[in-house]
Write a structure and sequence with these properties.
Layout: H1 23-34, E1 55-63, E2 66-74, H2 83-93, H3 103-112, H4 120-140, H5 142-149
Antiparallel strand pairs: 1-2
Amino acid sequence: MPVAVGGDLVLAQIIVLKEGITEREACDLVWRRETRQIGGVKRYVPSDSSGENTTVVKSAGTLQGIDTVLYTQIAANIQPLNAQELARLAVESVGKAKPGMDGITYLMAALGRGLKTPLSNPYEAEGEATVTAQLRLDITGPTYRRACTHI
């Protein structure tokens, strides 16, 4: 579903749940999937609006012959929301995040699935430039020089 600012159309999949799953249970499943709590027991607490780090489950109504299609809406939680800030945070997340959960891996996976937003291309370019600059700092820094003297 469209967002108010900064979004774009993306490919999506409708996951059809087995017969007998209530809309409430489906909301719990969708929310847990989006918040990386698959297999958990926490329940979704409905909200009318999304705030920072809040995931809201909404209904798109009937789509493609499916009676109820649910989706998530997440408010922007990065300010300023631009390619430079996204790249900075992505590079900073490497080494801090769990394996596979850093911003660089996220970008590569999103692009690999064809997910693009207005910031995707500038973010990718800025990320490459930021990583290259960081590598130059590492290679010319004292730690690298110290390591080379021990080879």
